[in-house]
Amino acid sequence: MSGAVGAAASPTGAIEGTRPPRRSLTGATPSRTTGTIVLAVISVVFLIPIVAMLVFTFRTASNTGYTLSHWVGLVVPPAGTDYSDLFAGITNSLVICVITVAIVLLVLLPTMLLAELRYPRLRRIVEFVCILPISVPTVVLVVGFVPVYQVVAGVFGSVSWTLAFAIGIIVLPYAYRPIQSNIGTVDTITLSEAARSLGASWGQVVWRVLLPNLRRGILTACFLTIAVVLGEFTIANFLSQNTFQTALLLLQQTDPYVATIFALAALLFAFVLLTVIGRLGTATRKEKP
Q1: CA 86: distance to chain centroid?
Q2: Rg of the chain over CA atoms, in angstroms?
Q3: pLDDT digits (tens, 9 = 90+) for 91-145
Q4: What torsion do the CA atoms of 137, 47, 91, 145 make, to the nearest 10 degrees?
Q5: What is the DSSP letter of 238?
Q6: Rounded distance, CA 253 to CA 25, Å?
Q7: Which residue blocks in 77-171 are alpha helix, DSSP H?
Q8: Are the CB atoms for 242 and 85 separated by under 8 Å?
Q9: Which of 50, 38, 44, 35 has the alpha carbon at shortest distance from 271?
Q10: What tens digit of pLDDT does each residue of 224-240 get?
Q11: Cα(33)–Cα(264) distance, integer angstroms
Q12: Cβ distance 156 to 239 under 8 Å?
């Protein structure tokens, strides 16, 4: 007998004891060199405008040299310069971020879990309602918000935090998709039924079983929500509210250098937030001994 015991062929044609070549479902897997080149090109595309903005903040007003006066002016503002409107706009945007994230976590997320566990026929309706705002231009939505906000202003007053009700509708498509994608990878029905059979209440099922498995989708939805709120301009401008973007636009007309510095700070904040959310999304609980 040839070869005796060694190297028997499997039904698929591969030799036993060897691992078949890994193939991607969408085609050939790119090599490490190709991935490095693609990552380098993308990094350069993103870094060029950021570096240009950073260099611009050091330019003198006459563009003849470089200076640190624009950065020093943040700590010791020049005479006649007032950044109170900008800091007020930043504070308003952060408050809107908190309220909008609360809307996503306390309204959208429970609705999606309820439709997934108890009312599966409502999934399509929930998806349609959440995806619909992305198909309507923001300017058109604002035109519809104006008469509504006349009533809102009569109840709560003309305050900036009420923009969270309108921005909460704008962020629905961005918050819905990552959560729904995460739900699609988790067998929520089996997990909930198993937990219920072991005596867990519905509150324990949601808090200790479902939410830990949906952590990455929830964190991604929160990050996208914050990014949309910090970058939103149209609604605040049409409704005459002071937010980060509207204040930044007014500042750019008088001091473009400081406006660019705050724009860089916003990009840095988004990068740090994305890094933190990525770490939290991949972190695992330590196993108890």
Answers
A1: 23
A2: 26
A3: 999 999 999 999 999 999 999 999 998 888 999 999 999 999 988 888 888 888 8
A4: 0
A5: H
A6: 51
A7: 84-103, 109-117, 123-131, 138-156, 163-170
A8: yes
A9: 50
A10: 999 999 988 988 988 88
A11: 31
A12: no
